[in-house]
Specification:
This protein is 83% helix and 0% strand. It is mostly helical and 101 residues long. The protein has 2 domains: 1-55; 66-100. The longest helix is centred in the N-terminal third of the chain and has 53 residues, at 2-54. It is rod-shaped and about 125 Å long. The chain starts with a helix and ends with a helix.
């Protein structure tokens, strides 16, 4: 009878050790998965910040020739004159102001 009890205790110890080992492995896997997810999130955040910082500034619009701007304004005034909104005298006065500036 003594031998049987000893075998049962031994089986219990072996089974307990196996359960503990299995739990330890599961916890280690969960830790590794969480660590990998944290590292991936940190990497993606770093990439996003790097792209925002490394993005070249938008190219500046080429400098507009002042004479081109004046010509467009005179054309707009001419269209207003042709449509009847401005008189010939008003058109001439505005045109002189633009050319003088």
């Amino acid at each position: 009878m003594l031998g049987r009890g000893r075998r049962m205790r031994r089986r219990g110890m072996v089974a307990g050790a196996a359960v503990a080992s299995n739990r330890s492995k599961q916890q280690e896997q969960q830790y590794q998965q969480q660590s990998a997810a944290d590292q991936q999130a940190a990497y993606e955040q770093g990439v996003a910040q790097g792209q925002a910082a490394a993005a070249p500034p938008a190219p500046a619009a080429p400098a507009e020739d002042p004479m081109d701007a004046k010509i467009r304004e005179i054309e707009k005034l001419g269209a207003l004159r042709d449509s009847g909104v401005l008189t010939e005298e008003e058109f001439a006065a505005e045109k002189q102001k633009l050319l003088a500036s």
